[in-house]
Specification:
This protein is an all-alpha fold. It contains 69 helices and four strands.
Amino acid sequence: MMELRDDLPSILADVFCILDLETGALEEKNKRDYYTHLVGACLSFVPEAILKERLDPETLESLGLIKQAHQFNQKIVKIKTKLFYKQQKFNLLREENEGYAKLITELGQDLSGNITSTLVLESIKSLIGCFNLDPNRVLDIILEVYESRSEQDEFFLSLIKSYMCEPITLCHILGFKFKFYQEPNEETPKSLYHIAAALLNHKLIELEDLYVHLMPVDGTIVEEHKREISEAKQIARKLVTVVLPSEKSEDKEKEKEKEEEKNEKPPDNQKLGLLEALLRIGDWHHAQSIMDQMPSFYATSHKTIALALCQLVHLTVEPLYRRAGVPKGAKGCALQPLKNKRAPQPTESFEDLRKDTFSMLCYLGPHLSHDPILFAKIVRLGKSFMKEYQTDGRPEVKDKMEILLSCFLSIADQVLLPSLSLMECNACMSEELWGLFKLFPYQHRYRLYGQWKNETYSGHPLLVKVKAQTVERARYIMKRLTKENIKQSGRQIGKLSHSNPTILFDYMLSQIQWYDNLIVPVVDSLKYLTSLNYDVLAYCIIEALANPEKEKMKHDDTTLSLWLQSLASLCGAVFRKYPIELAGLLQYVTNQLKAGKSFDLLILKEVVQKMAGIEITDEMTSEQLEAMTGGEQLKAEGGYFGQIRNTKKSSQRLKDALLDHELALPLCLLMAQQRNGVVFLEGGEKHLKLVGHLYDQCHDTLVQFGGFLASNLSTEDYIKRVPSIDVLCNQFHTPHDAAFFLSRPMYAHQILSKYEELKKAEKGNRQQQKVTKYVAACEQVMTPVHEAVMSLHPARVWDDLRPQFYATFWSLTMYDLAVPHAAYEREVNKLKVQIKAIEENSEIPLNKKKKEKERCTALQEKLQEEEKKQMEHVQRVLHRLKLEKDSWLLTKSTKNETITKFLQLCLFPRCIFSSIDAVYCARFVELVHQQKTPNFCTLLCYDRVFSAIIYTVASCTENESHRYGRFLCCMLETVTRWHSNRAVYEKECVNYPGFLTIFRAAGFDGGNKADQLDYENFRHVVHKWHYMLTKASVHCLETGDYTHIRNILIVLTKILPCYPKVLNLGQALECRVHKICLEEKDKRPDLYALAMGYSGRLKSQKVHMVPENEFHHKDQPARSATPASQQNGPGSTGKPAANTSKTEEGGFEDGDRVKDKSQGTTKPVNKANSTTAKVTTSNGNGALNSTKAVKDDKEKSGKEKKEKKEKTPGSTPETKAENRREKQRDERAGKEERLLREGKEKTPKADREKVKLDEKSGKDDKAKAGNGEPVEPARDAVKESKNKEKGDRNAATATLKSPNPRSDSAESERDHKRRKLDSHSSPSHSSSVKPQFLKVRDQGRSLLLDRPLPPSSSSSTDFLLLSDNLLPPPTPSQLICHLHSSLQDSSNELKDPATKQHINFNSVARSKSREREVEKKDTESVQGRSKEKKEEKERKERKRDHGVNDREASQESKRRKDENGTNSSKNSQSASPSCDSPLTPEKEKTKRSKSSSKEKAESVKAERTSSGGKKESRHEKSEKKEKRDSAGGKEEKKQSRLTSTDNVH
């Protein structure tokens, strides 16, 4: 085999290189391919390295020797550059390596001996000179060795300082070192940070020069901080939003990946490394400069830096902490101070803290959480400072102390509270912090909590995350919180609250506002909280209450929002159960009241109720109300629905909070003033229902709060804080009722203390001596009060009431008037039963059984002792009142004025103040009566109370209606007791001045006579009161007004035990209430519920109702008949009466209704009521002589008999037509007379509507009338009776004035006076005199007293309406007695038409015909004039038969007298307005003859109506004629009134 040359591969490679060039230039591709195949075939003996060296990269790529020609070219370029173009280092300075070796040896030697930096520096200089070393490289080596021996700071720093060249050179060398470690995955050694920090600390370099060499740049740090905040907020959003499970898992995986990436490549921030080194050596000023370049808390968010700074603070505060902060018994560990003289100086006093410590803590911020020990030290220093601050009162240090206080508050805000948020459930730190915070005023604390809750969590990424995690955890716990797992959930809530209470409580309160059933479990679960957490909870509650974004009213604007009610309930429960400071909450309520907002009084109401056990409700049972009139122990045992026990501690805490912060009196005054503010300031745009609710809430809270103060404050505290009554009312503008409510306990305290003083001064045990001393004590205490109350009202008030009476009424309570023996006995019996049950229960352990028995026995003894004490007290008070009563009321004014002032200033304001006061008012009136108080008319007082309830009811709020109803019920109970038993009445009322009736006239016993109201007439009066209550109730129910209906239903429910007692009145009420139920079912559900409730209870009371004739004695129907179409009760809808004949009382009721409708414009009387007593109701009084009454009765009887004979039952169309014509003539004539007499008097709109209703009823009656009768005889009879009656009237009036008959001259003189009166009609008989409602506002309380203006001719005589239907007396003396009981107080008549009753009670038919005339006067005026002549002609024709009728009437009257035994003296007096022309004496004679015919016609009518026929309309025409003919009698009555008035008093 032939051997190849060694250089053959090289030769072939050259050949291939040339071929490569040539074939590359050819265009034929096949030759290039041949070349490639050739070279590929030669690869077996030509090495690749040679080919790569000689061939082009493209050819090599085609041969497959390289992958890519491009990369191969780049690699070649790099290699060539490295080989040929990179400069090689050459030792141009002729340095020798031996010199550097010796340098390193010199620097690394043992420095513990006497070797100093000066000696080493000499050696280094020698080495540099000997071996030609570069000085900069020598400095670099020195720094390298220093880095490796960083503990030798002192040596190397002095060496560098001695060797030092330019500082900028040293900075550059350090900068090159830091730059070397800025490569990825490189970590700068701590030793390098240390030498840099040391050089900065010794000012060998400047921070500005070195800072530019450090990475990263500041812009990158700011962007990173912003990114962290946005990520934290994004995490927070995810935590609070609902996410599907699949999305949750994905998000968690992404977050894990991100965290792993961060952990793999931790960022190497050289600036933070240098900062840490500076802090380690104590160079605070340079460290502060670096932190100032970064975002807030960015540097300290890194744990190492935070710990380094904490260590520096430790060292700084150590001396001061050892002196002032270490608690007793604690040792602690001593810290070695820094050797660095340039480090912050240790603090020796609190003033030194201001130099560096506070600023270091502020830079530390929330990251103090990394060092709980330092946290505790700072807190303890704060406590020590606060104690010194509170005790040191030197003025020269005051400013410094104030500055330090503000610094500590800033530290608490910026450092302590945020750090607590980042600590994990550290309860010890929470309690430690509370030790400091409780020394701050609550204003400072709440401001700190507000910053913590609303601002702190938004400034740092960690806190943002913590807030979101806390909300998520709170949601988790609240979802699972129930009554069954309170203990477990409570512990979880406690753990969460130790760190972030504001966030937790904010979420919990938001849930409670939505779901009030969470209140109980939440309150129970809060027992694991720390003291700080409880305080934070109080703040969070106040903040939730004050949230301006939440409306405190529901959308309907009628009730308070549920969220407010829920928070109020939570307040009461939480503050009672846990020791939370109340000052903030009480101040919040006070501030709201100052701002005129009363919504939040609900909170105070709940807090007082839960903490003090004082419950305010108007739904008290009678047993509870009775218990509330006893002592404090009885109140606690039997006065409340829920027995709230163990309130001693909580009530003490509430009292202390009020006294410490001086809020007791301001709250009382603000609540008292706000009652009016609710109506007049707040109530402008609010719904009436809401205004009433707010008023009630304000008033109830005042009563509750005042009761709490009275029962819990000591005598000294109470007297010291409550000013006198005149200051309260005049200076603080407190309403009088509230002012006396606040002053009442003070008077009781003062009297009791003065009484004890007097007893001690003179030792005497006799009861009489004790009573005398008590009266003396009362005089000493109350005399200044009597003088003070004089300024509360105008001087004219004291003409009616004495200040002593006024003050006595307002200063006493039910505790002073009566002892609730039944309540005491009831509670004692309960305790006895309880003791017996304990003894019989064998399951109770013996020791517990013994304790319970002892408790019950002690309570029993307390109650018995309290009862005995109250009995003695009541006896003393009653004796005092007995001595005072004679000087209570003056006789300067009329009794009516006195009663008016008493009602206006005393009774009405107080009876609606509270339920106890309602009972007190009724009891006080009864007591004044029982004491036989001079000048106090009991009957008039009761009459005014029962007769004018419409206006009072209409002006009440809902709760006031409850109280007013209770007051009326108590008053009715007394009246019912007197009414039900003659013996009781005679014992308690007969011979009492309150039941005297006064009648003074010239014809009786010299003009002075006083008489008692007998039992039967009192029963009449009671029936009248029941009727008035029914009338008022029906009026309110028919108004359609929400307030009227609601209030009257409440009042009716309250008085149900005593009213209604009469069957027909109860039926009328039942009908109206049923109508309300139907109307309001879908409109106003609350009214529907009230009406249904009352309706059911009313039906159950039906069995106790009695017919009217059983309730009071009634005369026989023949003498007191009224039309059968009489209404069944007030406002009934046309139902027939229970009896076909209406009694006298029925006539009274209807007459009263007429009076109410038209205010005195009554028409001529229908003789159905001819037996009613004739009395006057205007300025004076009039009465009938008994003999004349007998004569009238006989004449009427004769008239009735003749009418019966003349009338026939048949009825023809001619008769009906004649009736219609007669009616038209009568109406036209009546209209013309009225226009001439009264002028154009107008009837009120409301009266016109009632006229329409009655007119319709009259038409129905007319349509139902039976068979007709001849008309002409009726006309004659009517005319005759008119003439005779007029004569009788004149005679009766004359008899009243003088026993002798009047002469003609006397008649003409009387006519002359009557003509004078024609120019102006009497107030009681003119609709133009309308009542003026005098609205008496007692500091916001509206008392509407119906008081018409008195006429100029009014007299001062007191007349009281005692009865409207009196029994017919057989003798003159009995007649006078009954007339006494028929009279009404003249002043009452003038000043109070709401209580004024109508004396001449006419039939319904009379009132209806009269009112129809008023309604139709315009239409009649057109028709009347054409028929006037015809009417006059017919009237003359009817005069022919009057003589015969007169004789027959007299005979019939005698016969009836023999049959009946006695005659009625109660003849109905005509109340028609006077005629325009007065009558002459001749005309009077004619009238006397006419009256017998008229009376006979009416008696016939009475008999027909009593037999069941509804024939009222049949005699309407006779009534019309009577009106025209009776004008003379009217004038005589006026004259009689004037004469009688002149003789009074």
